Amino acid sequence: MRSTKSLDKGGWRTLPAEGREGALPEWPLTEAAPRELDLWEELWAKPQATAWEDMGQELEVALFVRTLAEAERADARVDVKKMVRGYLDSLGLSVAGMNRNRWKIAPVVEVPEAETAGPEPAARRPSARDRLKVVPSGEGA
């Protein structure tokens, strides 16, 4: 299940900022609609997906995907939209859900500028103010 290495002193689990890598889990429900497959792919790339995978929550995520796709329709029932909110919390996709699950996302590690070997920035172009010339009184007319 959970790796003790990823838990800090307070019992919070740190999820990788880069998200889950690797092949998508197999879709566990009946045939998926194209929108469901798009959502499935997006969700399994999120940091929370590492925890779902550890806990074997493929079915729960698929049910959320199916419910979310239904809730996106203009004629969706209110109870379906409420179910989406519940899934957001239980799967840690909302702030409240992240807190309830005691999950946090690791800070993004930025590469220092010295390591990004790119071309030298172009010289600063003179502004309009720099191009203006002070003319003594009476000589500019």
Structural account:
- This protein is mainly alpha-helical.
- The chain has a domain at 33-105.
- Helices cover 39% and strands 4% of the residues.
- It is built from six helices and two strands, in the order βαααααβα.
- It is elongated and about 85 Å long.
Keywords:
single chain, 141 residues, mainly alpha, two-stranded parallel sheet, 2 strands, 39% helix, elongated
Task: Walk me through the topology.
Elements: E1 13-15, H1 34-43, H2 48-54, H3 58-71, H4 78-90, H5 95-101, E2 103-105, H6 128-131
Parallel strand pairs: 1-2
Helix pairs in contact: 1-3, 3-4
Strand content: under 5%
Order of helices and strands: EHHHHHEH
Rg calculated over all Cα atoms:
26 Å
- Backbone shape: elongated
Structural class by SSE content: mainly alpha
In total, how many beta strands? 2
Helix content: 25-40%
Distance from N terminus to C terminus (CA atoms, Å) equals: 83 Å
Number of helices, counting only DSSP H or I runs of 4 residues or more: 6
Largest beta-sheet characterization: 2 strands, parallel
Q: Can you list the strand order of the major beta sheet?
A: 1-2
pLDDT averaged residue by residue: 87
- Unreliable sequence segments: none
Short description:
The protein is mainly α. Helix content is 39%, strand content 4%.
